Amino acid sequence: MLKDRWKGVNCQALFKCVPLNISSTRQRVGCRISARRASRYVHFLADPFLFPFMPFAFLQPAWQPFASGPLSGALVIGAIWVGMCGCDRAPPPQRFEVASSSMAPTLLGPSQTATCSHCGHSFPVAAETVRPSLPTRCSQCGGECRVDPELIAGTQVQLEPIAVTQPPQRFELIAFTDSTSGLPHVKRVWGLPEEQVILRGGEVYLSTAGDPSPRFLQKSLDQLKQLCIPVANFPSDIISHWCVVSRDGAGIETCQPLQVLKPTTADIQPVQLVADTILQWRHQRPAPVHPDEVPSDQWLMPSPLMDDYTVNQGVSCQLHVVDDYLFSLKLHTPVHGKLIVSCRCGTSLATVELDFGPAELDTTQLKTARRIDIAWCDQRLLVQTDLKSLVVEGEQLQNLISATFHESRINEGVLIQLKCSVPIQLTELVVARDHYFDDWEASSTTTSGYFVLGDNLPVSIDSRSGLRRIQLEQIVGRVVRRR
Fold first, then answer.
1. Cα separation of 335 and 244, whole Å?
2. What average pLDDT does range 152-173 have in this prediction?
3. How far apart are alpha carbons 438 and 318 in whole angstroms?
């Protein structure tokens, strides 16, 4: 019997799995596998059909096991190959722990909690970016934060093996091993095989051998939701940058911050807005000052959306203006009237009028028009409600642009304005931004494999640098769950 041939073999020595000290710009993952299940994989690997794959088992995988013990975490690579080779039972999804901030804020590596001493806002910061000599700034009020020294483990994710018939798709998160060092990484797929990727002016362009002219990659609204970076969330934010605008007889504007009622229970009461209320969102970011040296009203400065990351404290890089963003509005009850949304589209102002008509008598229809998503993304205006979706571009978009944003309004940070003709009850207002890519073009014409990027672009090591393009045989699995 083939099984008897393995008697007396020191499997721990044969399939060695050692802990590795991985640099802060790498992803480290952990696996858990029982010794009994591992022994079954040994018998599978002893099969002559699978024997050609035995050299993979001699590699020292970079997975760090959650628990130590005989064969614990040793045969992960063998188990994956067993599943890919068509055995009667594929290995279950494996659980991994992210070990760097290259995918933040989607996946956090080891982090620490920063708490503002002024407003009390708490948020995670990447442990590898904390600099004790530099103040950690609060994104809400601009004050200085205290960083808790306690280290919080990275995000745990679950991987699903990649089937040959279901290759990775664009914008999916995949885990793979570096072909040179053997170290593991988790990144997002941006370019597919046979596609040449060019990063220019903050955007992504693609070309193929059959169509060598670079074409602009345009995302759908659902794809933007999948990968956008949160900027503001009302009412979760401690300090709201939404304000109610009123004008006096002389036409002078006054702004009152939008307040939220937070009772002692877990439920947050919806915000009531009367008819003809004007609501504005003004973006502000920490000013380049030391909070101890200036008054608190100088800690923030008006600003357009920038490609900064609150998780990157102590990382020095050039910031760019980000034009593409998403605005989501959630209502407590359906709206039955007009909502006029004015939003900045580059240097122009587009006005979208949403008319939801009178109230329906049929109560089954009352679930409609409770969520509205508006995005300026990749030179298109994307609108989605419970009722319908709309993509506005080209000549149709020009008809919506009613004015050019005055430079003073941009300097004030005004990005979105909402006016309602009927009373509404707000439960959530979310603003998120798209990614901005520094200019980059491949030095070679190789297009085999997948072009991958980390979400935390300033610190990520990916296909722009040492990792190059990722081949299918390097991929361990796709991320299917995270917590």
1. 19
2. 91
3. 10
